[in-house]
Amino acid sequence: MKEWKAHKYQEYMVEFLLACLRCNLFAGMGMGKTTAVLTVLDLLFLIGDETKPALVIAPLKVAASTWPAEAKKWRHLRHLRVRPILGTPAERKAALNLPADVYTINYENIEWLISQYSKEWPFGVCIADESTKLKSFRLRNGGVRAAALAKIAFLCTRWINLTGTPAPNGLADLWGQMWFVDKGQRLGRTHGAFESRWFNRIQIGASPQAVKIEPRPAADDEIQNAIKDVSYSLEAKDFFNIEEPIYIDVEVTLPPKAMAQYKEMESELFLQIQGEDVEALGAAAKTTKCLQLASGAIYLGESNKEWAVTHDEKLFALERIIENANGAPVLVAYHFKSDLARLIKYFPKARQLDKNPKTIDEWNTGKIPVMLAHPQSAGHGLNLQDGGNILVFFSHWWDLEQYQQIVERIGPTRQMQAGHPRPVYVYHLIAKGTVDTTVVKRRDGKISVQESLMEAMKREK
To answer: Is the pLDDT of residue 199 over 90?
Structure first.
């Protein structure tokens, strides 16, 4: 066990969480918010302000390992019992019957947990770790899990939303999370009221569902001011001299045949490759097919099990980056299964990030020269910074939160905390003249909204 010497920003977290019963803690990734929250819970139990156990709802890997491991790491938390509620229904029920101060469960099992308590809700504090999972909540016709959670949310004395990315897709993501803090008091009792007050609906197609939501000019300031009293934002760059990652766009030019196929898909939504008909019906399917072509392979038929290779330009570009790394490990982010198969075939020494803890250990000890990771599987709770400081995005997707999470696995904050005085390089392989460029620009737009929100939520000490 280690002695915990809190950073100044962790002291601020603890002060804020003790003072605010229901709140948002927007703490940048790698800033030790898990330890800060456990410290707050420990203090509440010690002074008798809380007598019921706490419940942490988190992504599966985080619920299974991050919270229990953090409690075991620090001496001042040694008596805090953290118990995951995971596994089969019988295993989860057995865990509930064992004593603990903090129970952790994944979002997928929250409906089951609520069904176990028909009379009295046993938890006094609820922590929604990665609270953007609640963004789909609506009073009507919203996410099923968030709707189930809403039934018991205000039976808890305290509620804490935890995330480093509160608005990954823009300000519209905030309403669902905030409802669990104040039941709509600050942003509107319903999502409809929230939307009509601060957003414009712009028709972008013939279908009634083809609508784009855009914030009105004053929305940023007004929404930020509305939630400021119950929100606290911290980023490591505000407390340390941490350089941003070095972002490098590497453009690749598609061969004439591949570009012709791409343009045909883009304009006609129809392409014939290897005798198979490939159709893209609708804008979403169209952009997905275009992203596949930009990466170098397109799925055939409706099963998405077979694909045809259209070019290898990104493989060649990645090979050059790996060669220039001079033996330093390289983390490669991919999106499509066809990407993974082609990467493994082209780079035989590459390894896929899987659920085996040994894989992460071998990466962090320098035994894996190239590791392939889908951003969705390399997000919350994984520490990859010891293994390297080079990340390459082989293919691209729209989800900003997944993008930010995998960058932060080896990001400057984690490098600093691990004692590695080295810059972080993030390469984007971009197929010139394709939707790759659009996705990167759109992600940048989302980042500007979120950074504005984070800045507004910061409190001066």
So the answer is: yes
How far apart are the C-alpha atoms of 143 and 419, rounded to whole Å?
41
- Print the domain residue range for 16: 8-234
User: pLDDT by residue (tens digit) across 138-178?
Assistant: 987 777 888 899 999 999 999 999 998 898 888 989 999 99
Query: Same domain for 225 and 281?
Result: no
Rg (CA), the chain: 23
Spell out the alpha helix ranges (H) of 101-162: 110-115, 144-153
Rounded distance between C-alpha atoms, residue 367 and residue 226, angstroms: 50
143 plus 167 within the same structural domain: yes
Q: Tokens at residue 55, please? A: 């419940």
Could you give the 3-state DSSP secondary structure of residue 106?
A: strand
Q: Give the residue ranges of DSSP H helices in 200-273.
A: 219-227, 256-268
Give per-residue pLDDT as tens, 174-194.
999 999 999 999 999 999 999
Task: Please say which residue of 199, 234, 269 terminates a domain.
Answer: 234
Residue 280 has a pLDDT of 65
Q: 204 with 260, same domain? A: no
Q: Which long-range contacts (CB under 8 A, 24 or more apart) does 225-230 make?
A: 225/456, 226/186, 226/187, 227/24, 227/174, 227/178, 227/181, 227/186, 227/187, 227/457, 228/456, 228/457, 230/20, 230/22, 230/23, 230/24, 230/181, 230/182, 230/186
At 349 the pLDDT is 95
Length of the chain: 461
Q: Find the DSSP H helices in 161-312.
A: 174-182, 191-198, 219-227, 256-268, 283-295
Tell me the per-residue pLDDT of 77-89, one tens digit each, with 9 for 90 and over. Answer: 999 999 999 999 9
Whole-angstrom CA distances from 391 to 2, 186, 331, 379, 394 are 31, 40, 5, 14, 9
Instruction: Print burial letters for 349-362: b (CB count within 10 Å at least 16), e (below 16).
Output: ebbbbeeeeebbee
Beta strands 102-106 and 54-58 are parallel
Q: How far apart are CA 41 and CA 47, in angstroms?
A: 10
Q: Do 59 and 181 fall within a single domain?
A: yes
- Cβ distance 231 to 455 under 8 Å? no
Check which CATH number belongs to the domain holding 130 and give it: 3.40.50.10810
Q: What CATH number is attached to the domain comprising 373?
A: 3.40.50.300
Query: 77: left (phi > 0), else alpha (psi -120 to 50), else beta?
Result: alpha
Confidence at residue 261, expressed as pLDDT on a 0 to 100 scale: 93
With residues binned 3-state (H G I as helix, E B as strand, rest as coil), the percentages for the chain, rounded to 5, are: 45, 20, 35
pTM: 0.80
